[in-house]
Amino acid sequence: MSSIQVQLIESIQAGLSSLFQIDEKDLSLQETKKEFEGAYTFVVFPYTKKAGKAPAQIAQTLGDYLIENKPQLVKAYQVVQGFLNISLHDSVWYGLLQDLSNDSSAFQLAPKNEKIVIEYSSPNTNKPLHLGHLRNNFLGYSVAQILKAGGYEVIKTNLVNDRGIHICKSMLAYQLFGNGETPASSGMKGDHLVGKYYVAFDKAYKAEIEQLVATGSDAEKAKAEAPIMLQAQAMLLAWEQGEPAVIQLWETMNSWVLEGFAASYKQMGVDFDKIYRESNTYLLGKKLVDEGLAQGVFYQKPDGSIWINLEEEGLDEKLVLRKDGTSVYITQDMGTAQLKYEDFGAKQSIYVVGNEQDYHFEVLFHILKKLNKAFSQGNYHLSYGMVDLPSGKMKSREGTVVDADDLMQEMVDTARERTLELGKIEGFSEEESNQLFQQLGMGALKYFLLKVDPKKRMLFNPEESIDFQGNTGPFIQYTHTRICSIRRKALEKGFPMSGKSDPNITLAESERELIYLLGTYKTKLAEACENFSPSIIAQYSFDLAKQFNKFYNELTILNEENEDIRTIRLTLADLTGKTIQHATSLLGIVSPERM
RNA sequence: GGUUCCGUAGCUCAGUUGGAUAGAGCAACUGCCUUCUAAGCAGUAGGUCUUUGGUUCGAAUCCAAACGGAAUCACCA
C-alpha cells in the first residue's frame, strides 16, 4: 500500500470516529472506476446503520472532513450513488513520482531472512521434455525470481527421476533395437534418442499383446505376460542388484539424456542450485520407512509390504514400501525431503508439480507430519493445471506431444520472420539479430504460459500458434524498446531523464494513471510472492505497457517545449522502462533495447 | 461411485478480502504513420458471468442443489 493510501485511510478512520463515533480498524479503499472522476473511492454503505444516516450524507460529511483535514492531499470529492470519490492534487502525484524515481529499493522488498527451497522441472530420464514441462520450468524459475525480489533467500532444486521401470523400458528397447547408435552417430540430441526407444518399447509391447490376444490370451493376462514387459521387470531387478552391464547401460543412457536436458534448460533460460537424483535418495527414503515402522507410524502386512493408515486424515491406506522391499514413488520423495532439509535447513519447501499429483502430495505431507521431523512443516505443493491441446491430453508414449525443443525453435523462427518482415533491425550484426530472435521468441512463449493463473488448466492451439500482438510478451518488450529509444534521443539532445520540476504543474489524466500504476508495483510484487503467482506480474506488465503506450500516443515527450513538463514525462518514461525491465525479468523474459 | 478442481464475449484469459454501467487480447469492422519505433493508438460490435434457490443495502465473487467438464482414487513415476 502506498503512503498516499495509508494517509487517506488513517484520515478516513479519524473522520468516521470523530463525526460518527465509528471505530473501524480495517477499512478498504479502492481505485476509482475509470468512468468516474477521482483516484480513490471509499464505500460508505457499510456504515449507514451505525451512523444512522443516508449514504450520500455520510459521504458528503466525510468528503468535507477530508478537504479540511488533508488540504495538501485531497483536492476535491464527488459523491455518486453513495460512493465517495476522492481526487488528489497533482502535486501529490508529482511527489509520488519523485519518490518512486529516487527509491533505491523500488524493486526489492525488505529482506525476510528466511530460506525457501523450490523444486521444479523434475524430469524423467526416459524421454525428452514437452510443452507441459515448459510450463513447469517457466513457473518454477519465475516463482524463484519473484520470491528473491520479495526478500527471500531462494534455493532452486531439481529432482531428476532417473530410476524405475519406465527407465528400463527405453534401456531394453535400445538393447534390442539400438544397434549401438549414439547421439554422435545418429546426430540426435541425447534425450530425443532415448525417447525414440521409449516409444519403440511401447510399440513392441503393444504388438506382443496383440499377438497374445490373437492366440487366445485375454487382454489383462497378455499385458502382464508380454515377454518384453517381463524382460523390463527383470532389468529393473538387475539394476537394483547392481548388475554391472545394466548399470553401465543405465549410466550411459542417462548421461545422454542429461546432456540433452542441459541444452534444453539453457535454451529455456532456467537453472538450478542443486540437482538431486532419485537413484541417490530412494535409499534414504527406505531408512525413514524403517524409522517410521519402529515408531509405529507405519505397519507391515503379512506379505511384508509396509503401509500407512491415513483414514483419520480422510484419506486411505497407502503403500510406502513394496513387499519385495523396493521403494515406490513416495518413498523416494520422503528421502529427498530429508536430504533437502539436511542440505539447506529451509523453513519452507515448495514443490512445483502438476495437479494430477495433488493426491500424492497430500499423502506425502501427511506422512512427513506423522514422522514428526523438522522438515514436516512448511511444505507446499504449487499445483498447476495441465496444458491441453485442442485434440486433448498429451501422451508421450503415443507421440501426441508438443516437443519442448521443437516448440522453442519454432517460436524463435517465427520471431525471425516477423522481425525481418517489419524491417526494423538495420545495422544489426548477425549475432545481435540472432540474440534478438531468441529473446522475442522465448519472450512470447514464456509470457503465453505464465500469464494464466497457474492453478488453471490452459489450452495451447498449435494451429493458431502464439501471437506477437496484443496481450503478449513481444508487446511488452516492444514498449520497452520504445522507451529505450527515447532514452537514446534524450541523451543526444542533452535532456536529463529525471530531475526537479515545478510541483504545481497540471498533469494529464494518462500521466496520473501511469504514476498510479507505477506506484502499485511493490504491492503487486508482494501479492505475487504470497500467491506464488507469476500471472500477477504478467498481468501487471501488460497493464503498465498498455498505459504507457496510451500516454506515449497522446502526449509528446521529447518535443515538449516546457522543460518542467518534459522532465516529468522523461522521468515517467524512464521509470516505466525500469519497471517493465524488472517485471519481465521476474518472468524470465529479457527486454531488448531495440527491436 | 468417493475426493478435489473448474464453468465469465465466437476463441484465449483478467476480474484477491462481496461494491457503481462485468474488463483485456485474438478474430470482424472503421479511422490514425513527411512529427519520440504502427509488434502501436483510438473507435464499433460482441454477455442471461452454466442453471435454480439462499444470505443482504448490494453477488461473477459467499452458501446449497442441479447440469456440464477435468484430475485423482496403482506394489507406475
Describe this structure in words.
Helix content is 56%, strand content 11%. It is of the alpha/beta class. The radius of gyration is 30 Å and the shape is globular. The model has no long low-confidence stretch (mean pLDDT 92). The structure holds one RNA strand of 77 nucleotides.
Describe this structure in a few short sentences.
This protein has 595 residues and is α/β, with parallel strands linked by helices. Helix content is 56%, strand content 11%. It is globular, with a radius of gyration of 30 Å.
Task: Record keyword descriptors for this entry.
alpha/beta, 595 residues, five-stranded parallel β-sheet, globular, RNA-binding
- Number of H/I helices: 21
Q: Kindly state the mean pLDDT as a whole number?
A: 92
Helical fraction equals: 55-70%
State the distance separating the first and last CA atoms.
Answer: 35 Å
Query: Rg to the nearest angstrom?
Result: 30 Å
Number of strand elements = 14
Placed side by side, the strands forming the largest sheet appear as 7-6-5-11-12
Proportion of beta-strand residues: 5-15%
Question: Main sheet?
Answer: 5 strands, parallel
Shape: globular
